[in-house]
């Protein structure tokens, strides 16, 4: 389905020259109306080139960030999401914090029915860290889904194989 210019009028990044931020910039996130709010469906983003900085050493950390959500009234605009994730490049935070901050920012922007963020960080010093966080809209079936998904999250762990 093609979006009308009226539906896209509030998007400032799409179709314009890109300015890359040098540090964490949640304000670049933009959203637009979901044309199918009555239907539950997943939207999944994979960012295999996510980078941030270790807050202790300043060394770069590399990860594949996966964001999967069931939208309600709003969808995240993908270019703004790319710029937002890129803004972590010079941001010093622990892996667990990055994943939780991404989750919180997207919940604040979209108020989705359900969302999960999973970071698969490359090993440093022989150890990889894979934080996972999720959220389900309170008072809905998705709240229970979030609790169940978190409780059963890693019963069948993936093969890490040094990424």
Automatic annotation (TrEMBL):
GO terms for biological process: tRNA queuosine(34) biosynthetic process. InterPro entries: GTP-CH-I_C/QueF, NADPH_dep_7-cyano-7-deazaG_red, QueF, QueF_type1. It comes from the Bacteria. It is an enzyme of class 1 (oxidoreductase). Coiled coil: none annotated. Its main location: cytoplasm. Substrate binds at residues 76-78, 95-96. It is found in: Cytoplasm. This is NADPH-dependent 7-cyano-7-deazaguanine reductase. It comes from Pyramidobacter porci. The gene is queF.
